[in-house]
Amino acid sequence: MKHPKLSHAFEVISALPAPLAALDKLAANYRWTWHHETRDLFRAIDKELWEAVERNPVRLIAETPPERLNQLANDAGFLTKLKATAQALDEYLAAPTWFGETYPSVPKDTTIAYFCAEFGVSEGLPIYSGGLGVLAGDHLKAASDLGLPLVGVGLLYSRGYFRQRLSPDGWQQEFYPTADFYQMPLKLMRDAEGQAIRIEVEFPDRVVTCQIWRADIGRVPLYLLDSNVLENEPTDQGITDTLYGGDQEMRLRQEMILGIGGMRALRALGIQPTVCHMNEGHAAFLTLERLRQFKQDHDCDLSVAREVLINGNVFTTHTPVPAGFDVFPPDLLERYLSKTVNDAGIPVRELLGMGRIDPENEGEAFNMALLALKNSNYVNGVSKLHASVTRGMFGGLWPDYPEDEAPIDAVTNGIHTLTWISRRFADLYDDNLGTMWRREPHNTEAWADVDDIPDDELWSTIENGRADLVRFVRRRLQEDTERRHMSRVDFNVMSSILDPHALTIGFARRFATYKRATLLLADKDRLLRLISDTDKPIQFVFAGKSHPRDDGGKNLIQEIVKFVEHGGGRTRMVFLEDYDMAVARAMVQGVDLWLNNPRRPMEASGTSGMKVVPNGGLNCSILDGWWDEGYDPECGWAIGDRSQPFDEGQQDWLDSRALYGVLEGEIIPRFYDRGANGLPQGWLKMVKKSIKTLAPQFSTSRMVHDYATKFYMPAAESYRRLEADGLQGARSALDYKARVRAAWDQVRIVNVSHSNGQVQPIGSELIVRAAVELGSLQPSDVCAEVVVGKIGPNRDLIDTQSTDMAYQGVLDGNHTFEATVMCDRRGYQGYTMRVLPKNDNIVIAHELPLVRWE
After folding, report:
1. CA within 13 Å, CB half, 616
2. E strands along 623-681, which residues?
3. Which residues contact residue 66 at a Cβ distance below 8 angstroms, ignoring those fewer than 6 apart?
């Protein structure tokens, strides 16, 4: 046999010299990922080893030779820094927080459970593939900074996503190294007897067991489920093997572990979430397990449990196209989930309906996003444009509502500033802005003095950051070339790659075809002229992975690599292999310009371009995702406009022309227009405007503020209100909905009129009156509204505004309502009137989408 099989297990730990004991505490909390001083401390132990262990402090400590540890234990300077960083962590964990000061009366047992299939906390915890995971990691960090009572829930993938290597002809190849969880900043959760806590999830013919690991992200615990335990069959041990790996059935198993297993893990740990936030539809099965647990705990029926829980669930979608959602065939779903839904008292037919636009359409596949959406009263897209696109995709759920009133809100993504900012820029801001930008990165006042930063200091910081990136690129290319060709590369050849003084443009992201990574190559001759210009040179750094089954994306990588190697771009264009958070940090901290050119409107948000902002970089992007709302010609550039030609080929051609035009006509001249002092004054003016305007707006500090105030706290309050007094609030809401549904056919708008004629002077008031029949309903059961807007080409109302109408009493047997409409917009306008249900315990459009229009 190759290797003997395991019979017994034990763990060996290393004991640090007593003076270095605080290193273990610092290593165990991922706050070091956004605390420069702690990272500097780890780097000081052994700089080369720190890079070799991919910035994993637990491995760093374990692999540092004892003689080096003993040397550090007697190094007064190192011990002083160690004491200071350990004290800084203690102070951070104990400090008053925004949440505690803003919501002092929130019950102590309030908990927000944030579920996501991936978390990008650090490259040393490789359980992320790209933007979704990095956003989730940044969310946890901001929640920690703000003091939210939040826990994360995810899966612990033993082989992560994949590591990328390129063949000699530029074709992506994948390999999957296995992680050693005991050599990572993770803690296996154990019971009082020291045994690993286990949870179980039922599959069709077996039970799968998972254990739970904890990662501390500042104040926030992240719980990760792992199916690689001896109790499971080998195939089930591999469920949490790779992220987004395997076939459709494996994806279903993973999502059952995440949603159902995640809820059971929280219960096993004694955590009862008040609010559950599903970050994308992968975790939607938690709604079923939460229903089962609630019914069991409260001895109530399904309708009452759902009435409470739908108010305590939040769903964020990141997908701008229907093809991006996880869908499953009904027979597969029924086979895997029949026991779970039976235990929850949910008929399988009803479950299948929850995942369809039309519950009765048996030919419609089961959509995880719809399951999450239909069981959440708080739903959002991740940019204003994306929310609009999502309302268009799912508008069929609310056929009586105008598309722009479908109840899907927008919370635009952001970035965790301290994670992504370079040490150089952090020091620059500390010297010129004080420290508020660290504590409150969302606060515009914290960035108010950016204009006062001396131009020479700002430019020096940008130049040094670019030089850091060039050194990073050369080092990576040296390592990759030696590995691929097994030989040293001539120093003169490597030192000619990239110019530390040239305009440097970055493009790094998942290589999906809609992101159009090769748009820049549409006119290779024109591109060669630009990168060959000796007076005003430009250069490009590319990075990114394609999904292992996406040959289209792999072709894009290969096309870029071939151009770099054989098309003339060798010294002015590079492709960095194995894109991860470390590569991303180096790029966003060193490029002058970030390029983003997806097909509009297929980029839900995008966060990579946000990361260059506090690092002094500018953006050039299609007006899609976050840039559609962040673009300002004084702080960046747009590629094309907001038009969307029907033909993709035409759109690609137009956008490529626009990209070359803005590069040649605006970006390059602005960068190289130097004043008498040698500084690019116009460029620096744009950099300052970008930092001042965009840094606070597109931070996760602002984003998590939005989630807390718009979703988490209202959801927690609604949940508690409906749960209180023996579920009386929920039962009352159900009675109200039944009563309104039964009587809604009796509601009729009898007459609507307004005062003052057809022509109104600007600033005047229009009095609108309506007579309504309510049947058996009371005026307090409904809300009457006037909907005012501009008159479109088909006599439809556009750009509408709604005004509540006040109840006036009964006249001629009808209920009368009245509203005052301000005539404050010029032009030809119109109005109509509508009646909707009204109840403080119900989110009307989600739970009771009834409307009676005039």
Report:
1. 29
2. 636-639
3. none
Q: Which amino acid is it at 455?
A: D
Q: Position 749: which residue type?
A: I
Confidence of residue 362 (pLDDT cuts 50, 70, 90): confident
Instruction: Tell me if 751 sits within 8 A of 794, measured CB to CB.
Output: no
pLDDT at 103: 97
Least confident among 10-24, 361-375, 597-611: 10-24
Count of Cβ atoms closer than 10 Å to residue 823 Cβ: 16
End-to-end CA distance of the chain: 80
Dihedral sign computed on CA atoms, order 428, 434, 437, 443: negative
- Cα Rg for the chain, rounded, in angstroms? 29
468 closest CA partner among 589, 613, 616: 589
Average pLDDT over residues 720-746: 95
d(CA 309, CA 294): 8
Q: Which of 415, 416, 403, 411 is nearest to 383 (CA)?
A: 411
Render pLDDT for 32-57 as a digit per residue (tens, 0 to 9): 999 999 999 999 999 999 999 999 99
Residue 852: phi, psi to the nearest 5? -115, 115
Nearest to 87 by CA among 26, 21, 17, 18: 26
Query: What are 818's two structure tokens?
Result: 């009245």
Where on the phi/psi map is residue 634: left (φ > 0), alpha (ψ -120 to 50), or beta?
alpha
Is the predicted pLDDT of residue 9 greater than 70, yes or no? no
The strand pair at 313-316 and 378-381 is best described as parallel
Classify residue 755 by its DSSP letter: S
List helix spans (H) across 272-382: 286-298, 302-309, 330-344, 348-354, 368-374
313 phi and psi, to 5 degrees?
Answer: -115, 140
| Rounded Cα distance, 203 and 77, in Å | 57
Six-digit token string for 581? 């958070």
Helix (H, G, I), strand (E, B) or coil at 620: strand
Walk me through the domains of the chain, giving residue ranges and CATH numbers: 18-94 (no CATH), 110-326+376-410 (3.40.50.2000), 418-698 (3.40.50.2000), 747-853 (2.60.40)
> pLDDT: is 431 or 800 the higher one?
431
Q: Return the structure tokens found at 166.
A: 């390129």
Q: Is the separation of the CB atoms in 583 and 473 below 8 Å?
A: no
Q: Contact 751/776 with Cβ under 8 angstroms? A: no
pLDDT, position 363: 86
pLDDT higher than 90, residue 722: yes
User: What is the rounded distance in angstroms from the CA atom of residue 543 to the CA atom of residue 172?
Assistant: 12
Q: Which residue has the tokens 């210009």?
A: 533
* Confidence label for 761 from pLDDT (cuts 50, 70 and 90): confident
Tokens of 422: 């370079």
Residue 485 has pLDDT above 80, yes or no: no
Q: Which residue has the tokens 């297929």?
A: 602
| Residues 199, 268 contacting (CB under 8 angstroms) | yes
Which stretch of DSSP H or E encloses residue 150? strand 150-155
- Give the CB-side neighbour count of residue 480, counting CA atoms within 13 A: 20
Q: How many CB atoms lie within 10 A of CB 231?
A: 14
φ/ψ (deg, to 5) at 386: -65, -40
Structure tokens at 795: 């006599």
Which residues have a Cβ under 8 Å from the Cβ of 72 and sit 6 or more positions away? 17, 20, 45, 78, 79
Residue type, 617: G
Q: pLDDT tens across 436-472, in order?
A: 999 999 999 999 999 999 999 999 999 999 999 999 9
Please choose, from the candidates 46, 57, 65, 56, the residue with its C-alpha nearest in 3D space to the C-alpha of residue 24. 57
What per-residue confidence (pLDDT) applies to 2? 66
Asked if 627 and 605 count as a contact pair (C-beta separation under 8 A), the reply is: no
> Cβ(466)–Cβ(539) under 8 Å?
no
* 561-568 contacts at long range (C-beta below 8 A, 24 or more positions apart): 561/166, 561/169, 561/170, 562/169, 562/170, 563/521, 563/524, 565/170, 567/524, 567/528, 568/524, 568/528, 568/531, 568/532
Q: What is the pLDDT of residue 46?
A: 97
